[in-house]
């Protein structure tokens, strides 16, 4: 071994040995010093937690105790020994290593999202691709925001210029990946900025589901289909929600002779509120219109409307539906004739030709299949005249059916119903086919009843929550919701309407009627059917 290397090795050993001896010699001092630091930190924390009004007495008692120790024989020596012993006991344990920092939620989730998007957005080999397997999400993600639960609330993504952002299939693929990583329990709005190659994602707050059926503040001929976000409506209306009066933005559908969208088509997943939407529309239209209801499913969802004032008929059979729709077609023709005659004569049209008539059809494709099997006319074909000339004749048609039966709906119905509603969780293709335009909102995996989207005419689709309008004859429904629907039905209520008093033998005042009874009465008065002459 060379001499210089031998000296270096021997010197290192001497230094290591001296360090070990010094560590052993100064170990008690290290322990006492660590304990004193613990005592100082404890005293500082105790002083900071002491209220200001108690700090003066605390200082006085501490000073008195120190003076007492000083005056005692050998008091300072005993106090120093006690302090050193306490410090040695407190500092006996080695300093605990710092706990490893918790992983950043944003870093973990955004890294996973970047890795999931890379196979779809990585293009041909380039000099500086935005997405590659060794890249970082900080190069393409900006403006991210997470809520208190650690879920993604807002994000802006940059994507390469060669991505086919004008194709709905390519967009849907990226939206599906983002929703899968961010969570499928919420709805997300995707704003594609094609000019700057930016995608802005925002998680949407859930819409209220505790708004029951009630009289809404609306103009004549205006129907409140439900409620939406604040940016989905230009106004708000007062509604009773949770025992209080609050302002909510409505989805309003304007009907009548000056409406650009006189008819409505509602499609939905079975069990997600299409029949409730029909009931809600019927209750809002009854004060100013006459109704003809066709229940194609035959489940009795609209039995509460039978023999109500203003309801001409509620049909569940094929024979009754064909008869009612033939009468509606003839009534539409008669109204057109009367209105044209009054217009040419310069006179006011009669009331029976101007009072609105509403045709409400729930699941008409069920009756269409039955009619095809029996070789009878399709009920949907009888809607041709009311659909084509309903706006001039004051006739409004509302059709609700399953989204799976969309192909069985007649072309005339699909072409003339410019107000569209789709309820329930639907895919991008189904939403596009039902509303006529691609949705910029990805539905949640699980949606409550009545949750969906609406598009009035050529406007943009908006989120929709239909008011809770349950069947009042359904005993499983909550009593409060049933009473809300019953209060809107036109019927003779024994709580407020007493029978006409019989005349007394003498010319005195009539005898008072019976006292109002408690509870909700579902009894219906005599059928108020007004038959009109057919043209």
Q: What is the topology?
A:
Elements: H1 3-25, H2 27-49, H3 52-71, H4 75-90, H5 105-121, E1 141-146, E2 152-158, H6 168-182, E3 187-193, E4 198-204, E5 222-227, E6 237-241, E7 244-248, E8 250-254, E9 264-268, H7 274-285, E10 290-295, E11 311-315, H8 318-345, H9 351-354, E12 357-362, H10 364-374, H11 384-393, E13 395-402, H12 411-416, E14 419-423, H13 428-435, E15 441-442, E16 451-456, E17 462-465, H14 479-488
Parallel strand pairs: 9-13, 9-14, 10-11, 10-12, 12-13
Antiparallel strand pairs: 1-2, 2-4, 3-4, 3-15, 5-8, 6-7, 14-16, 16-17
Give the overall pLDDT as a whole number.
Answer: 83
Radius of gyration: 39 Å
In what range is the share of β-strand residues?
15-25%
In oligomeric terms, what are we looking at? Answer: single chain
Major pleated sheet = 8 strands, mixed
- Number of helices, where a helix is a run of at least 4 consecutive DSSP H or I residues: 14
Q: Distance between termini?
A: 126 Å
Compute the number of strand runs: 17
| Proportion of helical residues | 25-40%
Low-confidence stretches: 493-535
Which overall shape is indicated by the principal axes computed on the Cα atoms? elongated
Biggest β-sheet: strands ordered side by side in the sheet: 11-10-12-13-9-14-16-17
Alpha-beta classification: alpha/beta
